[in-house]
Amino acid sequence: MAEKKFVFIITHSYDNPDKVAGALQLATNMRALDIPLDFFLMDKGALLAKKGFAETLTWQAKDEFSPVADLMKTLIEDFDVKFYICASCVKHYELDRVERIPNSEPKPGAFLADMLREREGLTF
Asked: pTM of this prediction?
């Protein structure tokens, strides 16, 4: 049986930090089980690629999930997960003018479409 792979499509950030934290927590648990996955950040989710932005998401519901910044750090440093950023969103949010998180790279929507040929997409 072929190994199942996933792409987490994140479309939120400051507008719904609990949804983001839930997605990152699930991804961390999946990577701990060696399940292959990467992220595609689009719409407001693209802001997560800005270095230091995740640390500003401090208004999560108390004791629900680990902080977004901690989860992202674990995914990047411990599991080498990639965070692809919608190329149009990079321009819209001026992410080409700021330092971005490690393991992040702008990609066009066609890249996501191609990923979805081989992976199951989970949208948050």
From this structure: 0.93
* Confidence at 114, pLDDT banded by 50, 70, 90: very high
Distance CA 23, CA 52 (A): 19
What's the structural domain count of the chain? 1
Residue 99, domain CATH? 3.40.1260.10
| Sign of the four-CA dihedral 62, 63, 65, 71 | positive
- DSSP for 74-106 reads HHHHTT---EEEEHHHHHHTTGGGS-B-TTEEE
- Chain position carrying tokens 């990577």: 31
Q: Which residues contact 118 (CB under 8 A, 6 or more apart)?
A: 5
